[in-house]
Amino acid sequence: MSRKFFVGGNWKMNGDKKSLGDLIQTMNGANVDPNVEVVCGAPSIYLDFVRSKLDAKFGVAAQNCYKVPKGAFTGEISPAMIKDCGVNWVILGHSERRHVFGESDELIGQKTAHALENGLGVIACIGEKLDEREGGITEKVVFSQTKVIADNVKDWSKVVLAYEPVWAIGTGKTASPQQAQEVHEKLRAWLKTNVSEAVANSVRIIYGGSVTGATCKELASQKDVDGFLVGGASLKPEFIDIINAKA
């Protein structure tokens, strides 16, 4: 079955109303491949602003959320609040959440379950660090991260898996198309064995890690690469080129 190409932009902690307004204007006016699902991950304080300005053909994502609907959790936001802003996606388990903010696999699993129960789509991130790749344990790491996510998913149609080798995020190093394809293929095989063949065939596995206008076309041509999660380049006009990588 054909999987709809998915391109997420993770704006991280960047932008202000002026610069994001300019970016939104560029996106709204651009010719983008209608066969691609595009979702922009905005800082939480701008979710309402971005959703109100961005063309409805583009989705919007929060970059994180908590595992309960409300309560005494200073500084957190819930899926219910995200949905109340008209936003339908959340990015969970990004390596910066894991490694800068110390989020555990278990917490990411709980967040995933709660987000899905509340009707959000989840872009669930997994990926190994440089010492783990060099130590030959890439598969062990990404499979264990995927298992905790999988244990918390009932409806896979609302999940996009983002493979982001941590050593390639923001470093300018991109996994080669072959390296990306190899891990994506192994992830699909893991899903087939541990979830189901139907899920393995239908779930989109996207690549993240220094994706640019220059690297996107060859990455997009790989059989098991179903799109991208784009960092820095998603704040620039070249994001349009990345969206159109398959065109």
From TrEMBL:
Keywords: Gluconeogenesis, Glycolysis, Isomerase, Lyase. GO terms for molecular function: methylglyoxal synthase activity; triose-phosphate isomerase activity. Pfam families: TIM (PF00121). GO terms for cellular component: cytosol. It catalyses: D-glyceraldehyde 3-phosphate = dihydroxyacetone phosphate; dihydroxyacetone phosphate = methylglyoxal + phosphate. SUPFAM superfamilies: Triosephosphate isomerase (TIM). GO terms for biological process: gluconeogenesis; glyceraldehyde-3-phosphate biosynthetic process; glycerol catabolic process; glycolytic process. Pathway: Carbohydrate degradation; glycolysis; D-glyceraldehyde 3-phosphate from glycerone phosphate: step 1/1; Carbohydrate biosynthesis; gluconeogenesis. Its EC number is 5.3.1.1. It comes from the Eukaryota. Homodimer. Triosephosphate isomerase is an extremely efficient metabolic enzyme that catalyzes the interconversion between dihydroxyacetone phosphate (DHAP) and D-glyceraldehyde-3-phosphate (G3P) in glycolysis and gluconeogenesis. It is also responsible for the non-negligible production of methylglyoxal a reactive cytotoxic side-product that modifies and can alter proteins, DNA and lipids. Belongs to the triosephosphate isomerase family. This is Triosephosphate isomerase.
